[in-house]
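FOLDING PROBLEM:
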Amino acid sequence: MAKFATPRRNHLLDRLAPDDFALLRPHLQEMKLDYLDALADPGRPIEYVYFPLSGVASLAKTMDNGAAAEVGTTGNEGFVGMPLLLDTDAGSTGVHMQVPGHALRMSARAFRNGVTQSATLRRLLNRFVYANYHQTCQLVACNRFHDVEQRCARWLLMAHDRMPRDDFLLTHEVLSIMLGVRRSSVTVAAGRLSEAGLIEYHRGHVTVTDREGLERRSCECYWSIRHEYERLLASERAIA
C-alpha cells in the first residue's frame, strides 16, 4: 500500500484504549482513496472496513430509476463499515469517496474478531454509530428547512473539517448530488459564498478562505452534528 504524504489521524482510533487499538493495529493498511472509489456496494457483502484519515466518504441511497441521494458522510471522525457492527454482512446504501483522501483499511473478518474480543471497543464504535444516526436525522431536517446556500456552507465546513489543508477537490456535480439540487443552484450558492470572500472556487478546487464567515453562513445543522460527535466521544480515552 502507498504511503500518504500528509498523514492525518483518525479521531475514532485516537480515542481507543491502547489494548483495544492493539487488536486492530496489525490488520490496518494505509491506502490512497480516489474520487468515486467504492468502499461498499448496496446489498453486497462488506469486505473491508475503512478508517479515513482525510477525504469525505458519502453514503448514498439509490432509487429504482438510478437517482441517488446522500444520506450521510464519514471522514476522519469515524469509520466505514457500520453494518458489520450491527450483525449484518451488507448494507442497503453504497459508500463512495466524494473528496479524495487516505484511509487505514482492514478486513471485515479482522474487524469482527476485534469487536468480539473487546466490550470497550464495541462501546466506542456503538457511540459513533449513534452519532452517525443523529447526523442522518439532522440532514433530513436540514434538507427540508434550510436553503441551498446554508446547506452548501454546511457541507463545505464538514468537508473542511476532514481535510489536512484549506483546499480540496470538489466539483459542482458532486456538490449538487450531495445537496440534492440542480447544478445551477449550486453554481448560484457557491458564487455567493465566493463573492463574500468565504471560499475560492476554480476548476473543481475549493479553497476555504474565511472559515468563521462560512460558519456564520451555515445553518444550525453543522454545529448540531459536530457537537453530537464531540459529546459522544469526548469521554472516551485517547491513545497515549
